[in-house]
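1st attempt posting a full record on here, be nice pls
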Amino acid sequence: MKLSIIGAGYVGLVSGACFAEVGHDVACVDVDQNKVDRVNRGEAPIHEDGLEALLRRHVGTRLRATRDLAAAVRASEMTFIAVGTPFDGKRIDLGYVRQAARDVGAALRDLGRYHVVVVKSTVVPGTTDDVVRPLLEEASGGRAGVDFGVGMNPEFLTEGVAVRDFMEPDRIVIGGMDERTIAALARAYAPFRNVPTFGTNNKTAEMIKYTSNAVLATLISFSNEVGNLCARLGGVDVVEVMQGVHLARYFTTTLADGARVTAPITSFLDAGCGFGGSCLPKDVKALVAHGEAAGQPMPLLDTVIQINLKQPQRVIEMLERSFATLRGLKV
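the predicted structure (as tokens):
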């Protein structure tokens, strides 16, 4: 398939390089000329293990970068929107998503053939159908479901190992406004055989992404709350507590040969200094804010955030109780 990807950042460029690796023809679009030039030289503008090797292998054949959005869209069968969605503490900023939708819609005007537009950016439930779709229709003069399809395909990538995560996915979630859109997205992911593929509507696909991150954040804050209590009580080792919890059949499975395998999810059931990074804090806060805006407060997730905000200081306080000074201390 011929694909265009709007946004050559962490998600967009990794997706583009990996799609090229499985045989698709990909054009990555970005407004940054320096980034475009570097990609077209086979240089990775971001650090991701294995990314530069993919660029060097496919740039000039199945992969290219460009600033010409209209040409890239019109030459492709499917366009992914993978631009940033910053969070200001109250709501995610859809400015880049809106502009991308307008630009893609304008490129689709008078195209004369069916095209699929897919949101890959992390957006709150309802964004694809209620924001992106109307903008596409307005800018293109066409009608969704007739002239083009609109889909949602959340990413589940971990920074640093995003190439591995894309090439060896644990699941592929495909959202679409109709069966035609879902079928088109399924063709794009056809090279990924023996991977669970889940088709649903756009709003549900958006919620799957947020829920996936929210449950991980919840496990971390739960573990830290238990750890804080163990520290306060004294004589209780939270590491051993969690090791005992992990032994439950809910988390550890005995195979036919007698070997015991512990589920990877248990790595989030260990006490520590809390969660950070570019995804979990932003996504949980955005989901809480979205719930409040919809008239559905989310006190559990709000507490998850509050516990996490206080956890680094709690760790420092525990260290101060155990050591005369923290200067030069290696933990």
